[in-house]
Design a protein that fits this description.
By secondary structure, this protein is mainly beta. The strands form 42 sheets. Strands 2, 5, 8, 9 and 10 form a five-stranded mixed sheet that branches. Strands 14, 15, 18, 19 and 20 form a five-stranded antiparallel sheet that branches. A hairpin with a 2-residue loop joins strand 14 and strand 15. The chain is flat. The two termini are about 115 Å apart. The N terminus and C terminus are likely disordered.
């Protein structure tokens, strides 16, 4: 019998809880939400336990398993999931993801709660370096509350305070109590009763919630004032706070203002604010500055309101509290055991009733709701059940493992029937499960196998699995025929058994085992098997007839693999019974049908009857004839049969009853027993039992409810035990378990009334509510309505519910009041009824939020409040915290009853200023009190605004600040003024102002700070402003006047009448007129001219200083180019708009560009085609010049040849008359009537091959008895091969030939001709071949083979040309009868004679030129060969000069070296670089190649004002010449000249703007570096600039600053240091801009640095002034008695101050010279050996190490004393002088002007202006560089990116005194020739 079991997990049995859990469960789970920084990554972990240990994996939202993603995600085997971080996050990592863990083992599958991984920002760095802790401190008055708020510079919601510091000591803050001095409320630290002792620095330690990184804030100072100005409260609060349930929480509402305010707290309940008084559950700290909740509860979440007020006003702060509780789920015991077939109910509950519940079974959805019902529990139901509770932001779960309880066994694996040969082995296997674990036993033909252990070889093995399965195997070995039979495996436990049987057939004769009597129960179906063995068998019939198989049947059987012996039995088994049964004594077999039937070996009794008892026989026979027979006895026994009985259904408590259990049939003896609810009868029930032979009587004397149950009668005999069950139900009337009582609750409070009753059947409890008004106690005729799920409200929290007998409502409402009835009824007796009244009381409260009431002084005012609540209700008024005295005639109160309560009105007559302030309406009844805050404002016309001042100032606006009473309308009266004293009747303009409050705090008079912006003003105009205030009452008097002048603004109009005209090659003259003064917007400083090349990239700008400047000449432009020009005017505030574009073109000059895309190709053996891209040029070109250089190969030497061709204006030329198969270098240059352009880089090509020329000299000599050697010299040009012809002399025809391959580089060819007749004379000749064809034959030579050959030389005499320094090889190839003796004459000093007799001369020089002869001798004769060796030198170094220096170009010229008549020059290569290293190896080196016919070159595209090192090489066929001596030259231009500070710096109260438009220079400024610092500070702050302006903002008003400007150009750096001040807050100027002296500039440049700002001074960027007296004193000591001439230069580098001046004498060196702009000095010396005495012509020069550098910053001095010997020498002719400029201000324009000053001038530095002459090398020893003059007097602005330069044509400014004093000493030309020795150059390179 299968029972039904209903289990409630909330009331689990104690035994189930003790079962050990095997299924997985989670020990560690990830939290519901994990926030992490994308740049940092995160790790989350799941840890699970179980037996065996479970495997943990991670699942995605779709249920798929997560796998590793390189660089993004890694899943570890221990349940850890890692997300990698990165500076560059992938898009996939920026989205939240919901994941969960899965743990599985053999007993079940568990899923964790969902975890949402939420990335926060590009945290790179939120958790790292992107946030800083910040502390805000609000000062307080002594005795008040101070507030310190700790936050973060970004993402403050992720940062919370961890500790507080006072100074360097940590501040210990205890848990909050009402008496605590320190309280942490949110992120604020509150300090009560502060005193001056609490003042000082405080800081906080903040912790980041994602990375747990802590940072300490910078200290902030708490200020405590002894007395403060009164002001309305300003609150320090928080908008939202979050706390965990059960933790302490304080809500901040601190006001540090004076006087200390009064606080009120409110809580929003059901949409209404309810006052919150101090209580143990929510107590006030410091009078209400904070409200603390000792244990936060979820019910306390919601909106809270704090109000603070004093006599000056009030403030309100609203806070919202979030209370997070831990969600818990309960399902009962962790392990539940259920019986198979039973019904199980799983109950689940969550701590939050609103959570949604869902069930999972082994990870799969199984249902939803609080209960899960499992019917007919089977093996598929076992496993792990999880109940998940989900809320919007989190989830939780509880797990339960369901195991099957005690159950009957089930077989899962069985064996089949099989046949076995004798002696074989077999294994029979069965597997079963059940609870308790079943035991498996084995039977043979129904008998335990143990009975046959001695007869057969059996072995039984058994094993159990973790899941409770049992497997058993029966192993039979060495089987015999007797071991065959019907084998059975039986699995059994105390609840039942399961059995399986199958035959094991073993070949052999038949036999039948003996069986004892077989006992069966009458009425049961019985199957009995014949216990036979042997195989195969056949049946026996009465006639014993055998049926043989036919031939076809036998063949079919044998083809299927059956043994021949089966040929009979297979058919028999298919068609006939294999065993025959019959009843003993009957003589007939048992048939196959009927109640008693036999089929095969089975005898069936369906059912067994007593008449079936007796003996039966079974017989088997083998096909071969043997048979076996055995008798079996069957005994039939009768079981008891119980007559049905039952209990009456109308039994009640107190009645008596008997029940009889009788037996109608069955074998005796029989035994009776009774059970109640499956257990023996309890003795305490007093049940009497009487039993006889055939019945048993059960008697109940007095029934109670305890007697109810199922009663079972069990009767047993030797056949069976039978049961019969009847149910006794005793009906019990209902009685109260919990009787409901009347309830009185406050409005809004929870309502809960319980009603519970017991009885049988279980009573139904129903709540009713009386319909109608009023409350009564007794019954009435009114109708009642049943209270169901939710009544009188759409919200479940507010509605009334009746659930399981409990009447409840989340919030009591007025509608819930009335008469209710609880009724319990089960149909037994009358229903149980209880009436009760529910009363809802309403505490006193005031409707409405309060507010402000205004009245005009002297008029009346009325304040009204509506109070509601239960009567009696009282209302009174208070003013400023004191109860209002109504005895005064000015006050009266009137009250009126309303439907909900009381309305009170307070009336005031003739309001005065003192009547203003806070009023409170107080309402009270016996259930509570409430108050309403209102403010009365008594208004009057305002006073005049005071403290009017200028807050900020602009060019077209002004910001005015003042103090006035709040809530006023303000206006401004403005008027321009001619001076600082406004006119009394000046017309004024009325402006309505948009006012903003700058400070909410009121002063002692109640006024606040305001500000407004005055717009639409004019720049640089003085104004007068007066303010008035007005309200609805009237207008105030005018304020005191405010005087100010608006700031400058960039000009608003462009210059007029702009004209552009050509002024010279590469020059444009620009003129204009200044714009109207109205548009100047300040003092006009100058004008800026900008230009841009049309169609090109060249552009630039320059400035002309002075408002009256009207013209400028732009120079250094590209010739023949068109430019777009605009002009702007500028002042200190900036530059105005551009004028309309005006175009102008510079005059055309010689071409400045070389042809591009030059290519050439050979078109014939005598012609080349050259192509190029035409050069764009403004003027028409005359054509192009082509220069061709070739190297003609002549045997062992190359001869260079030149050719020049003129072509037309096209881009192609054909050059004819060239040599065949010859390489050419081709230069192309443009030509115009103004000159030649630069040549393009050379290209290389060759003419086509032609037919080879005739071979030169040919010689033939006898080399043996049958051999002749022929040798010859190759022709000019390349040859592919030679053909050697041989013919016997005198014969016509019959010649033969042989091919000789040409060998590249071979100067001589030879070949032996063998197989000739001795002493016969042969003719030989040679023809050369090329790809174009075969050349003419050579001359014919003859020779005859001789057996004894005399010595002969096959080499040919010739001239050999060798480059000096190379090796020369002279061949001496000889033949003849050995031995051969060779001798060379003459023998050079460096030679080697090879084994072949060749003479090798190493390192050939000119002394080895001449004839060399090789002589060979043997016994038969001798021979000789001669060579003429010619040694050629490479060209000598050319002499390089500087012709002229421009801003961006150097014009070079040179003298050709003495040519070699045999080796003309091919080309020149020019190298130049910025450094003074060898030009070819410098990093900045550039080079160009020009034809040998050129003697000049212009290096263009250079840096302005930069020093260059130039070298020149000449090239010929002998190689390259040594480089020329370095030419040190500087392009024209100088460093930038700073502008005056007053013209450069513009200021307002918060910004400084620096203009660099007025900085003048010929050279473009590459980099501007501007920095700012407060005056006296150390650190500089960089100022970004756009090349025109730089601006620093957010500066302190009225503060002096220092501004450093560094302008870097290719000519050097210029530094200016200004001191300027921002305007004060009211627009006043502290002083004008100051230009700091040179010493401070140097100190700023060398010593000052700042964060991110480089030091402005490097090397010799600044020159110090040399005191002439110091240098003169030193020279006087050295030259005492001689009266030498002293050269003093005003500028020198810093090395002079370090003792760099010295007296030197240098050794004579070969003269080198260079050029350098603005230097002109001559120093003449003789070699040291010629220094006899000081000559009256001695020359002194002052120089220094920096001068040796030749850089822009060099200008040093050194003292050199040189004298000439007595021997006289002549000066060489002076070199060509460069064109000199007439004036220093005319850079860039060439003039025909020469300096006329002589060396004997009266100037103390006459040598500086003297012409230089080049001295002969033997006499000129050494010269040193002169001092560079200053460039500060130039007045040009910067040209940008390859643009031009300009000179101003306005009236020149007077030169400074120092400048005028040295103008006569400074040479006016650009470059100047200077001489250097090699040693000086080495020193210069070492210094570099």
């Amino acid at each position: 019998m299968i029972g039904t079991l209903v289990l409630s997990l909330l009331c689990a049995s104690h035994a189930a809880g003790a079962v050990e859990r095997l299924a997985p469960w989670f020990v560690v789970e990830a939290p519901p939400v994990v926030q992490y920084g994308v740049g940092e990554g995160v790790r989350v972990t799941c840890v699970a336990r179980g037996d065996p240990p479970p495997a943990v994996t991670w699942l995605a939202e779709d249920g798929s398993a997560l796998e590793d993603v390189p660089g993004l995600r890694r899943v570890y085997g221990n349940g850890t999931l890692e997300l990698a971080g990165g500076a560059a996050p992938r898009p996939a990592t920026l989205r939240p993801a919901t994941l969960r863990c899965r743990a599985a083992n053999a007993h079940g599958v568990a899923l964790s709660r969902e975890t949402t991984l939420r990335p926060v920002g590009a945290l790179g760095a939120v958790g790292a370096a992107s946030w800083e802790a910040v502390l805000w401190v609000r000062g307080a008055a002594a005795g008040g509350v101070a507030a310190l708020t700790c936050g973060a510079s970004r993402d403050p919601q992720l940062v919370e305070p961890a500790a507080w510091y006072r100074g360097e000591d940590i501040l210990h803050v205890d848990p909050p109590t009402p008496e605590s001095r320190y309280v942490v409320a949110g992120s604020s630290l509150l300090i009560r009763a502060v005193s001056p002792a609490d003042a000082g620095p405080y800081s906080c330690l903040a912790r980041h919630s994602l990375s747990s990184v802590t940072r300490r804030s910078q200290p902030a100072t708490l200020t405590v004032t002894a007395s403060a100005v009164g002001a309305a409260p300003g609150l320090v609060s928080a908008s939202e706070l979050t706390a965990r349930a059960g933790s302490a929480l304080c809500l901040p509402c601190a006001a540090a203002d004076h006087p200390p305010p009064t606080y009120s707290w409110y809580r929003e309940v059901a949409g209404r604010l309810q006052p919150v008084e101090s209580s143990p559950e929510a107590w006030w700290w410091a009078g209400g500055a904070a409200l603390c909740l000792p244990r936060a509860r979820p019910q306390q979440a919601g909106a809270w309101l704090c109000k603070a007020y004093n006599v000056f006003g009030d403030a309100t702060a609203q806070l919202r509290i979030h209370v997070t509780d831990t969600l818990t789920v309960t399902v009962g015991p962790s392990v539940l055991v259920a019986e198979t077939g039973s019904t199980v109910r799983l109950n689940c509950s969550a701590s939050d009733p609103a959570a949604r519940l869902a069930w999972l079974h082994d990870g799969a959805a199984a249902g939803a709701g609080a209960a899960l019902l499992l019917r007919s529990v089977s093996r598929s139901h076992r496993g792990l059940y999880q109940c998940f509770a989900r809320r919007p932001h989190d989830s939780a779960h509880a797990d339960l493992e369901l195991r099957l309880g005690d159950s009957a066994p089930e077989l899962h694996y069985t064996f089949i029937e099989q046949a076995l040969r004798p002696g074989g082995s077999v294994s029979l296997r069965c597997a079963a499960s059940g609870s308790p674990a079943p035991r498996i036993s084995w039977l043979l033909d129904g008998q335990p196998l143990d009975q046959f252990g001695n007869q057969h070889r059996y072995f039984i093995s058994e094993e159990s699995s973790a899941g409770g399965d049992v497997a058993s195997a029966l192993n039979v070995s060495a089987a015999t025929a007797a071991a065959g039979g019907r084998y059975s495996c039986r699995a059994h436990n105390r609840l039942g058994r399961a059995e399986h049987s199958a035959r094991l057939n073993i070949y052999g004769p038949p036999s039948i085992r003996a069986l004892g009597p077989v006992r069966v129960v009458a009425g049961d179906n019985v199957t009995l098997y014949c216990p036979y063995a042997g195989y195969p068998i056949r049946s026996i019939e009465v006639h014993s007839r055998i049926i043989p198989l036919t031939r076809t049947e036998r063949a079919t059987s044998e083809s299927r693999g059956h043994p021949r012996s089966l040929a009979y039995s297979n058919i028999a088994l298919l068609h006939q019974n294999s065993v025959t049964w019959w009843v003993r004594g009957s003589g007939t077999a048992v048939g196959g049908t009927g109640r008693v039937s036999a089929r095969g070996a089975a005898l069936r009794l369906s059912p067994a009857l007593p008449s079936d008892a007796g003996h039966y026989a079974c017989a088997v026979a083998a096909p071969s004839g043997p048979a076996a027979r055995r008798d079996i006895e069957i005994q039939v026994r009768n079981p008891p049969k119980i007559s049905p009985f039952m209990f009456s259904s109308e039994l009640t408590e107190g009645s008596s009853v008997q029940v009889l259990c009788g037996v109608s049939s069955g074998d005796k003896p029989m035994y009776f027993s009774w059970f109640k609810d499956g257990a023996p009868l309890p003795s305490n029930l007093q049940i009497e039992e009487k039993s006889l032979n055939e019945f048993s009587l059960l008697m109940f004397s007095e029934l109670t409810s305890r007697h109810s149950g199922a009663y079972t009668c069990r009767v047993s005999n030797h056949a069976a035990s039978v049961n019969y069950t009847a149910t006794l139900s005793v009906k019990v009337t209902p009685s109260w378990v919990k009787e409901p009582q009347e309830a009185a609750v406050l409005l809004g409070a929870p309502l809960l009334i319980e009603c519970a009753a017991k009885g049988y059947p279980t009573p139904d409890i129903v709540w009713f509510r009386k319909i109608g008004d009023g409350i009564s106690i007794g019954e009435s005729t009114e109708q009642w309505e049943q209270v169901r799920t939710v009544e009188w409200s759409s919200s479940p929290e507010l509605g009334l519910q009746a659930n399981n007998g409990t009447l409840s409502a989340g919030t009591a409402a007025r509608a819930h009041q009335g008469l209710y009835r609880c009724q319990a009824d089960n149909g037994v007796g009358p229903p149980l009824v209880k009436h009760l009244n529910i009363t809802v009381h309403e505490a006193a409260h005031l409707e409405g939020p309060g507010g402000n009431v205004s009245c005009v002084r002297g008029q009346s005012a009325t304040l009204t409040c509506d109070a509601s609540g239960d009567a009696p209700l009282s209302v009174h008024w208070s003013h400023r915290g004191a109860k209002l005295d109504l005895n005064s005639f000015r006050w009266s109160v009137s009250e009126a009853r309303t439907a909900g309560g009381l309305k009170s009105s307070l009336q005031l007559r003739a309001a005065e200023k003192l009547d203003a302030g806070e009023y409170r309406c107080h309402a009270r009844n016996q259930f509570g009190s409430s108050e309403l805050l209102m403010y009365l404002h008594v208004e009057e016309p305002p006073a005049a605004p005071r403290s009017v001042r200028l807050c900020a100032l602009g060019s077209r606006w002004a910001r005015v600040c003042w103090r006035a009473a709040p809530a006023l309308h303000h206006a401004a009266l403005t008027a321009p003024r001619a001076d600082t004293a406004p006119e009394p009747h000046q017309p004024q303009t009325l402006l309505n102002l948009t006012v903003e409050t700058t400070d909410d705090r009121a002063d002692a008079t109640g006024s606040r700070a305001y500000a407004a912006r005055l717009a639409d003003l004019r720049p640089a105009v003085p104004y007068t402003v007066r303010l008035v205030a007005s309200n609805h009452v009237g207008q105030s008097p005018q304020s005191d006047p405010l005087l100010f002048t608006t700031l400058d603004e960039a000009p608003s109009a462009a210059p007029l009448m702009v004209r552009v005209r050509p002024a010279g090659p590469g020059e444009l003259h620009v003129s204009w007129s200044a714009p109207s003064p109205v548009s100047w917007n300040g003092q006009l400083i100058g004008h800026v001219v900008s230009w841009r090349e049309v169609g090109g990239s060249s552009e630039g700008r320059m400035a002309a200083r002075g408002w009256s400047a009207a013209a400028l000449t732009v120079v250094a432009l590209r010739s023949g180019a068109r430019y777009a020009v605009t002009v702007r005017s500028y002042n200190r505030a900036g530059a105005g708009p551009h004028s309309p574009v005006v175009h102008g073109a510079t005059p055309a000059g010689a071409p400045e560009e070389s042809p591009q895309s030059v290519s050439c190709i050979g078109v014939s053996p005598r012609a080349l085609r050259v192509r190029w891209a035409p050069v764009p040029h403004a003027a028409p070109l005359l054509g192009y010049d082509l220069h061709l250089a070739t190297i003609q190969q002549k045997h062992s030497w190359s001869v260079a040849e030149w050719q020049e061709v003129r072509a037309g204006g096209g881009g192609e030329a054909r050059v004819a008359g060239l040599r065949a198969a010859t390489n050419y270098s081709v230069w192309v240059r443009a030509r115009s009537d103004l000159g030649l352009g630069p040549p393009a880089p050379p290209v290389y090509c060759s003419t086509l091959d032609d037919v080879a020329g005739a071979v030169g000299a040919v010689r033939a000599v006898a080399a043996g008895g049958d051999t002749v050697r022929a040798s010859w010299l190759p022709p000019a040009g390349p040859v592919t091969h030679y053909t050697l012809y041989t013919r016997e002399l005198g014969k016509v025809g019959g010649e033969w030939s042989q091919r000789v391959e040409a060998e590249e580089g071979e100067e001589e060819m030879w070949r032996d001709v063998r197989g000739l007749r001795a002493r016969a004379v042969y003719e030989l000749w040679v023809r050369a071949a090329t790809p174009a064809g075969v050349g003419p034959p050579s001359v014919t030579v003859t020779a005859a083979p001789v057996a004894t050959a005399p010595a002969r030389i096959s080499s040919l005499s010739r001239a050999v040309s060798v480059v000096e320094g190379a090796d020369a090889r002279l061949r001496c190839a000889a033949v003849g009868e050995p031995p051969l003796r060779r001798r060379w004459s003459p023998l050079p000093p460096r030679h080697v004679v090879s084994d072949a007799g060749d003479l090798i001369i190493h390192g050939v020089d000119a002394s080895l030129s001449g004839n060399y002869t090789c002589r060979v001798r043997n016994a038969a004769g001798s021979d000789a060969v001669s060579y003429l060796v010619r040694v050629h030198r490479p060209p000598s170094a050319p002499l390089l000069r500087l012709a002229r220096a421009d801003l961006y170009a150097l014009h070079l010229t040179w003298e050709h070296p003495v040519p070699d008549p045999d080796l003309p020059l091919i080309s020149y290569s020019i190298w130049w670089s910025l450094s003074e290293e060898p030009a070819e190896t410098a990093e900045t080196a550039q080079w160009a190649s020009v034809p040998a016919s050129d003697s000049s070159y212009t290096a263009r595209g250079l840096r302005c004002g930069a020093a260059y090192s130039v070298r020149l090489r000449a090239h010929s066929a002998a190689g390259a010449s040594p480089p020329s001596r370095p030419l040190l030259a500087r392009t024209a231009g100088d460093k930038v000249s700073p502008a005056a500070g007053a013209e450069s710096v513009w200021a307002n109260s918060s910004a400084l703007r620096v203009s660099v438009l007025g900085w003048s220079s010929l050279c473009a400024v590459r980099l501007w570096r501007l920095a700012l610092r407060p005056a006296g500070a150390d650190l500089w702050t960089r100022m970004p600039t756009d090349g025109e302006y730089a601006e620093a903002t957010n500066l302190r008003p009225g503060t002096w600053y220092e501004i450093r400007v560094v302008a870097s150009s290719s000519a050097g750096e210029s530094i200016a240091l200004y001191r300027a001040a921002t305007l004060t807050i009211n627009g006043e100027r502290l002083g004008e801009v100051v230009e700091l002296p040179v010493e401070e500039r140097r100190a700023s440049a060398e010593g000052a640095g700042g964060e991110g700002v480089h030091s402005a001074g490097e090397g010799g960027g600044w020159r110090a002034l040399l005191v002439p007296a110091l240098l003169g004193g030193g020279l006087a000591v050295l030259l005492a008695g001689l009266g030498g001439l002293v050269l003093v230069r005003r500028r020198r580098p810093p090395c002079c101050l370090r003792g760099g001046c010295s007296l030197q004498a240098t050794r004579p060196q070969p003269p080198l010279y260079t050029t350098e702009p603005k230097r002109n000095e001559k120093v003449l010396t003789l070699p040291d050996g010629q220094l006899h005495e000081i000559s009256p012509y001695a020359t002194f020069s002052m120089s220094g190490e920096q001068a040796l550098m030749g850089g822009a910053g060099a200008g040093g001095c050194a003292l050199h004393l040189r004298s000439f010997g007595r021997a006289e020498f002549d000066l060489a002719a002076p070199p060509p002088r460069p064109n000199l400029l007439a004036h220093a201000n005319e850079y860039g324009r060439a003039r025909d002007h020469r300096d006329t000053e002589s060396e004997s001038s009266g100037s103390p530095c006459a040598a500086c202006a003297a012409d230089l002459y080049r001295l002969p090398a033997p006499s000129l020893s050494d010269t040193l560089p002169a001092v560079e003059s200053s460039a500060e007097e130039t007045s040009y602005s910067t040209g940008a990116r390859g643009g031009g330069a300009a000179r101003g044509e306005s009236a020149p400014r007077p030169a400074p005194r120092s400048r005028r004093r040295r103008e006569h000493t400074r040479h006016s030309s650009g470059p100047t020739v200077r001489y250097f020795s090699s040693k000086s150059l080495q020193d210069r390179q070492r210094i570099v």
